[in-house]
Design brief:
The structure is a homodimer. By secondary structure, chain A is an alpha/beta fold. Helices cover 42% and strands 20% of the residues of chain A. Chain A has a domain at 8-149: 3-Layer(aba) Sandwich (Rossmann fold), CATH 3.40.50.720. In chain A, helix 1 packs across helix 9, helix 6 (151-164) packs across helix 7 (209-220) and helix 7 (209-220) crosses helix 8 (222-230). The first copy, chain A, is globular, with a radius of gyration of 20 Å.
Amino acid sequence: MEFLTQDKLTLIGAGGMIGSNMVQTAIMMGLTPNICAYDPYAPALEGMAEEMFHSGFDRINLTFTDNIEAALKDAVYVVSSGGAARKAGMTREDLLRGNAEIAAQLGRDLRRYGKKVRFVVIVFNPADITGLVTLLYSGLEPSRLCTLAALDSTRLQTALAQYFGIPRDRVQNARTYGGHGEQMAVFASTARIDGNPLSTLIGTPALPEEQWKELQQKVIQGGKRIIDLRGRSSFQSPAYLSVEMIRAAMGGEPFRWPAGVYVNRDGFDHIMMAMETDIDRNGVTYRVPQGTPAEMEALRDSYLHLSRLRDEVIRMGIIPPVPQWARVNPYLA
Amino acid sequence: MEFLTQDKLTLIGAGGMIGSNMVQTAIMMGLTPNICAYDPYAPALEGMAEEMFHSGFDRINLTFTDNIEAALKDAVYVVSSGGAARKAGMTREDLLRGNAEIAAQLGRDLRRYGKKVRFVVIVFNPADITGLVTLLYSGLEPSRLCTLAALDSTRLQTALAQYFGIPRDRVQNARTYGGHGEQMAVFASTARIDGNPLSTLIGTPALPEEQWKELQQKVIQGGKRIIDLRGRSSFQSPAYLSVEMIRAAMGGEPFRWPAGVYVNRDGFDHIMMAMETDIDRNGVTYRVPQGTPAEMEALRDSYLHLSRLRDEVIRMGIIPPVPQWARVNPYLA
C-alpha cells in the first residue's frame, strides 16, 4: 500500500462512533502510516485500537492516547469529532455551550501543542460554530481549518436521485451553502439532472413546486431520519466525508463537496459557513456561490442565523466580542 | 476506481453493526459496483443505505431489500453477519439454537434462490456451527463456503506484539486453529518473533511459561475485553476481515489468516473448523496444520468440542444425524 504522506494524522474523539469509523477509513484509504487516536475516555479508545489491531492492518503505526499534548505533538493533520452528543433533557443551548467550550479548549490545545499542524477538520455540532471557536483560539490561518458541511449536499443529491429514479451520479453539482438543516440555503441553480438544470425543472410537471418543497424538507430532516431509522445519529457518512477532506489536504483526490470555511467579506462578517471550496496541500480556499436573487437571499438568511448563534456564544462568554478577535487570532482581524 | 469484478455481492445482516461496516468496507475496497444489502429489519437497513448514499460514493450500484429472494437472486458472493446477538437472560443454548435455526434457513434460501452463488462467508456466532449448518442445507460444495476464524490469530499477533513491545508486523504467522476462544488451539510452533520461532522463546526469560499462559488467556478473552472496553461486541474487525476473505475469493489480494472450513479427513469427521487455508477464485482449500504433539492434541480437543456442539444441534433437530447428511448435501457424504 502506498501512503499519501508520512505526516502524523491525529483523530480526536476516536473512541466514539464517528471517530472509530474515521480511524478505520483513514487506514483503509492509505493516507499515512502514522495515525494517532485520541479520546478523553480511555476505555472506548483502547477498545477501538484493539479492533484495528485485530483487523490485521499492515505497516500502520497506530498509536492511541488520552493525553492531548501527546496527541497533538508533531501532528500535521487533525480531524475532531470530539464533541458531546445531545442527551435526554439537554436543551439546544446546553449542547451549544458544551460543544463551544470543548471547541475553545481544542483551539487552545492546538495553539499550545500543535506546532506543526497544517490542516484541521472539525466535525462536531454545530460545526459552523465549533469550527469558528476552534479557529479563533488556535491562532491558525483561516485557510488551515474547515468544517464538515457536505452532508446537506449529498442528501440533496440522494433525494433528487430518488425522486427522479436515477443513479446518484446522474445528479450533478447538488449544492447547499451557508448553515445546516433548517438554515441551509439550497442552490437549485447549480444542480443538473441528467445534464438539465434543476431550476428549469422546478415548477414543471417533472418536479412540481410542492414536491420540490417536500424534497427540500426531506433533506433538512435527513439527519433526524437516520436517527429514526437506525436508532443512532449518522456516523458512517460524517466519518467518511471528513476523512475525504483530510485526504484532499494531504494532496490526494480533490474533495467534491462544499466545506465550511471562515468568511469575512462580501457582506459576510466574521463567520464560518459552507461555501464552494477547494482543499489542497495549501489549505482551503473558497468562492461565494452565485445564485438567483432568491438563493442569495436564502444564503443571507442563513448567514444571519449563524451570526445570531455566534453572538449567543459571545454572550455566554466563551469567545470575546468580534472587535477583540484580532488580539486572540490576528488572522481574524 | 477499478473494481475487482462486476459480480453481485450480497451482504446479509447489513442493518447491524458488523453488516453496515461490511457495506462501507466493501465499497471502499472497490470489490464490485453491484452490492446488495439485506436485512430482515427494514428501518435499520434503510438507515445504513442512506448513510452510504450520503457518503457520496460514486459509480456504486447499492441496492437494499428485506426480501431474501431478491437479495440472493444473481448473487455470486455472499457474506452473512445476520445472526442474533446474545441478549440478557439468554443462555448459551438459546443463542446456539437461535443462530443454528437462522443458519438452516439461510442454507435453504441459498439453495432455493442463490443459483449463481460461488462463495459464501459466514460470520455469525458460533461460526463453526452456523457455517456448517448453512453449508449442509445450501447444497454447496465445501470449497464454496468458509467462516471467519481469523480473530483469534490476529489477537494472538496483537498480544505478542504488545508483550514484546514491537510493531505487529514483526510478529509473523501467529496462528490458532480449530475452534474459538476457550476452544482454540494455539500453535506456538508456527509463529516467529522478529524471525525467531516463538516456541524457542517460551519458557525462557524472554517469555516465561506463566506469562505465555497469561498471554493466551488474554487472546481467549479478546472478544469479551472489547465488550468491556467499548460497551458493545467487536464489529469493525470482524467486518473488515470477512470482506478481506471475499476479496480473496474474487481473485484479489490473498487472505493471510486461517479460515473455518469443512473438514472430513485425517481423523476430523464432518466438522467445520479453522485450518490453514487458501482462498482464491476457485474457493477455499486447506491444509491440516502440523504442530508439536501438544499442539496436535489441543487441535484434537478443539475438534472434539466442536463435535459436541454439532451433536447438540443434531439433538435439537435442526440438522439430521451425520449418516443422513449425504441426502441433504451429497458433497458432505
